[in-house]
Design brief:
With about 270 residues, this protein is an alpha/beta fold. It has 9 helices and 13 strands. The mean pLDDT is about 95.
């Protein structure tokens, strides 16, 4: 049985991956706070400082790298630096674990700073000399739902004008990542996206209907090259594999008995 290190194993995707690997591999999770994860050994470590990384990578056959600093918009380069520290620690141990990395569809087509950092992280892995596999996925249903919840906090429901999304079920991404982790290094594999391309204003109306909120939907024009990249569909699949669970199905399952929906990335919701 192979030993697999999962970074970001306490996050949304990481937890789904660990659940699927249980019983199929000897699982180790890297955690800054030594949080316990069912079915896995937890190793305390920090990709930002490098603390604990030699212990975390010691003896592993595969590294599934899901840890991400997508909330640190002021310093997106930390995501790339974290990947470099992880790769350096793996190489310093004298072994050559297979690195399986999750990235973002369209990261090389939209000049968003965080996306550029993800592409730079891909490059770090490709040039590391380690065996590697990279999967790009579109935004998770949970991410899109969080955007809608926050856009509808006030008296108006605000969305970026002309933006579309192709949200994908996180469990489908986890299934694909597990298959890659248990397989041979495959390089850049086909992108994975949701089954439908949808306008954000339509998704906002669906969200408002689900929580029985009546307020105007206001598409807000956004300037700049990054917004232009999203309007042009740079975040959508041009080729690849599509999942099966739609955002509408996900949304229906997210409505609580009291008619509210929790923010997947924060307290509350409507």
């Amino acid at each position: 049985m192979s030993r697999i290190l999962v970074t970001g194993g306490t996050g949304l995707l990481g937890r789904a991956i660990v659940r699927r690997l249980t019983g199929k591999a000897d699982i180790r999770v890297l955690s800054r706070r030594a949080a316990q994860v069912d079915g896995a050994e937890t190793v305390r470590g920090d990709l930002v400082t490098g603390e604990g990384l030699p212990t975390a990578v010691d003896g592993v056959d595969v590294i599934v790298h899901c840890a991400s600093y997508n909330r640190d918009y002021l310093h997106p380069e930390r995501d790339t630096e974290a990947t470099r520290r992880l790769v350096d620690a793996a190489r310093a141990g004298g072994a050559a674990p297979h690195v399986v990395y999750i990235s973002i569809v369209g990261a090389d087509r939209i000049p968003f700073r965080y996306y550029r950092a993800k592409v730079a992280g891909e490059r770090v892995i490709v040039e590391s000399g380690l065996p590697w596999t990279i999967l790009r996925a579109t935004q998770f249903h949970e991410f899109v739902l969080a955007l809608l919840i926050r856009g509808a906090k006030g008296p108006l429901a605000i969305v970026p004008r002309g933006f579309r999304a192709q949200p994908v079920e996180v469990d489908e991404v986890a299934d694909r990542m597990v298959g890659l982790a248990l397989g041979e290094p495959a390089g850049r594999v086909p992108d994975l996206g949701g089954p439908r391309v949808e306008r954000l204003d339509d998704l906002m109306r669906a969200y408002l209907a689900a929580v029985r909120a009546r307020k105007p939907v206001v598409p807000l024009p956004l300037p700049g090259r990054t917004a232009g990249g999203f309007r042009a569909g740079g975040n959508l699949l041009t080729d690849g594999v599509t999942g099966s669970r739609t955002f509408a199905e996900f949304l229906r399952s997210s409505v609580r008995p009291d008619g509210t929906v929790a923010d997947p990335y924060g307290p509350g919701g409507r």
